[in-house]
Amino acid sequence: MPQDNGISLDFEKRFEEQQDVKGRLFKTLHVMYRGHYMKLFVSFLFFLLKHSPVWILPIVTANLINFAANPGEQDIQVIWINIIVLTVVIIQNLPSQILHISFMSKAIRHVEASLRSTLIRKLQHLSISYHGELRSGKLQAKVLRDVEMIEIMSKQTMLGVLPALMNVIVAIAVTANRSWSVTSFFLIAIPISIVIVYFFRGKLNRRNREFREQVEEMSGQVAETVEMIPVTRAHGLEKVEINKMDSLLHHVRGKGYKLDITEAFFGASNWVAFQLFQVMCLLFTVYLAYQGRIPIGDVVLYQTYFTQILMSISGVINIYPQLAKGFESVHSISEILFAKETQEYQGKMKLKHLDGAVEFDNVYFKYRDTDKHVLESFRLSVKPGETIAFVGESGAGKSTILNLVTGFYRPTSGSILIDGIPMDDVSMRSFRKKIAVVPQNTILFSGSIRDNITYGLAEVSDLEVQAAVKMSNLQDIINELPDGLDTKIGEHGDRLSGGQRQRIAIARAFIRNPQMVILDEATSALDNVSEKLIQDAMHELVKGKTTFIVAHRLSTIRDADRIVVMKNGQCVESGRYDQLLANKGEFYQIKMASEAAQSSFG
């Protein structure tokens, strides 16, 4: 909905504003809940109302016992006043509880949804190189599991920590009003709890982090294993994958076991310590009553309040592992929220029209994990409407050039100009709306064929869709399918052949009426008949448009205006098809090698 989009954008802007602030954990929490503090405060007020019977009941009980222990000292109305007060505060618990949860849920659920939306937005804005370094399964774990852990932590704070804090404050305040000696005994319990938490905190945090990292690793491996099932099955490697997952699950189990044991020892230690304190409190208050220093009914009051203090502190200690998991999840998602590796270009100049002139000026490029340059001193001047084909052995830098033109990567040095404008100044969103990219690995989603062809386009007529289908040689396939264009193609288009998937991707390019076309081996999965039909269609698609082509089938680039031969990241030869063959240089060698390979398989 528009409102949610606006809220998500505001959420994203908050994190961007806080980029340079230290203290990532509390910074993240503050940014998440900014704007919701009033809802949480109102929820807290209703909590005080709904929780009041817990504090009033010990006072009423003590008053009634003291009344019974000393008959005749007080009027009978004391009983009725205490009963009426207790009844009223008990009945009001119903509306107060609903309102307490209502305001709390509005804040927490809003933050949960906005946080996931912001993570998705941030992932869309991060650079391609950032995504290349993180497996998709790990990112899924952050978006799903970590946000859920933060939601649980938020609820535990509102439903566990705050009530416990208020129980301690009220109990000490009431007790201090009646007996300072008992109050001083109560206060001893608080430092004990702090010592226990301090002693276990480091180990719990370490165990949680190790377990979280193992779960993320497992999530990434599961996603990879599922994608590899066809390859695994084809080569009979099921046991290899099973053993790999079993080994990883063994590590997860081990980390989880260590975490559980640490949490169990933590919980047992605080329970034993507090039970011993409770026994000492009972003996202390009975002794004071025996000496006549406090009324007999106050023994029950003090014992009840001390029990509340111990239970509250014990409750906080018991949920501390959940809080630790939540804090670790905050740390986990902050790795994405505060990542500064955004897309390579941040230009603001919007292109109203794209002529298609491209200039590579002494471009060098290398990936961050290597010192070897993929491109070295690459120069190329492309005129508007010109079709440029790149050929060469694998690793020569062909696909890298296409990624640089698309703006996925930025030159290590040198510059690229679009219509005479440096790409650093160009708005990538406005530029990419005017280009069409057909990648080597066809990317489809689990919708209908129509949805995949019209992906991202708001209004597309049936005539435009039919024209794209016809030009991409999809019509025969569409006619054979039960629901035609509305046929669901399964996840990643798994119900279609490789050639059918590529033709859908080509139709997606046709329907955009681009001003620049980038084809990365777009016909590699097509049979010879389909390839000829697609070539004819592509001839119409690229007419008058700047086109970059990477192809291993040299027959597909016969009509290119220029063929650029790449070797070791450099342009070693350039010219038209027939001209390069006549020169008997690198292109001629590639041609001969290709024909020899085809004849050996023929």
TrEMBL record:
Pfam families: ABC_membrane, ABC_tran
Source species, domain of life: Bacteria
Record membrane topology: Multi-pass membrane protein
UniProt-recorded Gene Ontology molecular function terms: ATP binding
Localization terms from the record: Cell membrane
The UniProt record lists the keyword ATP-binding: yes
Organism: Gracilibacillus salinarum
Keywords noted in UniProt: ATP-binding, Membrane, Nucleotide-binding, Transmembrane, Transmembrane helix
Domain ABC transmembrane type-1 residue range list: 56-325
PANTHER family in the cross-refs: ATP-BINDING CASSETTE SUB-FAMILY B, ATP-BINDING CASSETTE SUB-FAMILY B MEMBER 6
Chief place where the protein resides: membrane
Protein name in UniProt: ABC transporter ATP-binding protein/permease
Positions of the ABC transporter domain: 358-593
Residue stretches spanning the membrane: 40-65, 77-94, 158-176, 182-200, 271-290
